[in-house]
């Protein structure tokens, strides 16, 4: 028999979460997992109709969710959302992601600025907005979705690697800064996941052959496999975990 005490370590009942980039892919699966653990989840993205549909999907499953449509790179609009929220989120998942796979010779500085704005600066800005409410509540949890492309580099993708590396560094800095307030800041670094954004790669036999050779688990990650990592980092059971990057990549980053 599973004890109630054990389950309570991963119970998010009464918590409020804001998940950015939650309209599809890993963001939606993270939002679903947090809602399944008991949290009320705000689904953020730029496309209101898609968010309405996703929130309705979760409600149909008996879960608590609402859309929160705003552009994370528009700091004024983001501040307006936080000011209007009936209750400030005590969980923030910075998942909004932009990728531009081009080599340095083709990637202009302004393109890099855009990658950093979405992948790193937006996380900084939203965390800054969320912290006052978390302090008033006596604590909270921030999870930044980085990538194995931060510490590991492949040719022809410098902008994304730069941005995700910056987000991992921000995770460490904020973990140290906000720990005295009971606010934990961690990150999840996904590997190769079969999301909508990677659909063309999923169907590419050469990529499949590469994963079979490079990944110990010899397959793509399934989007639903990311959610439990987020629940753990946000839950009471991880109360002494901060500044950590939890890698979810099927062992790819540890294989020689």
UniProtKB/TrEMBL annotation:
GO biological process: fatty acid elongation
GO molecular function: oxidoreductase activity, acting on the CH-OH group of donors, NAD or NADP as acceptor
Domain Ketoreductase: 15-191
InterPro entries: KR_dom, NAD(P)-bd_dom_sf, SDR_fam
Family: Belongs to the short-chain dehydrogenases/reductases (SDR) family.
Protein name in the entry: SDR family oxidoreductase
């Amino acid at each position: 028999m599973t004890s109630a005490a054990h389950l309570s370590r991963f119970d998010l009942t009464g918590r409020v979460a804001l998940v950015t980039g939650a309209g599809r892919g890993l963001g939606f699966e993270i939002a679903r997992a947090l809602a399944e653990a008991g949290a009320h989840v705000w689904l953020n993205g730029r496309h209101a109709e898609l968010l309405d549909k996703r929130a309705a999907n979760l409600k149909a499953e008996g879960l608590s969710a609402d859309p929160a449509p705003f552009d994370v790179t528009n700091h004024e609009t983001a501040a307006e959302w936080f000011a209007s929220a009936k209750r400030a989120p005590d969980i923030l998942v910075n998942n909004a992601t932009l990728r531009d796979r081009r080599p340095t010779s083709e990637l202009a500085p302004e393109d890099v600025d855009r990658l950093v704005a979405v992948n790193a600066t937006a996380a900084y800005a939203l965390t800054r907005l969320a912290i006052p409410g978390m302090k008033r509540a006596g604590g909270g949890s921030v999870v930044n979705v980085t990538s194995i492309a931060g510490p590991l580099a492949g040719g022809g993708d410098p902008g994304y690697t730069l941005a995700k590396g910056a987000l991992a560094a921000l995770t460490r800095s904020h973990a140290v800064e906000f720990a005295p307030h009971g606010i934990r800041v961690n990150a999840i670094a996904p590997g190769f996941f079969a999301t909508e954004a990677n659909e063309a790669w999923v169907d590419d036999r050469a990529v499949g052959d590469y994963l079979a050779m490079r990944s110990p688990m010899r397959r793509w990650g399934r989007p639903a496999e990311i959610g439990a990592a987020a629940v753990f980092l946000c839950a009471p059971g991880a109360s002494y975990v901060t500044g950590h990057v939890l890698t979810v990549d099927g062992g790819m980053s540890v294989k020689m």
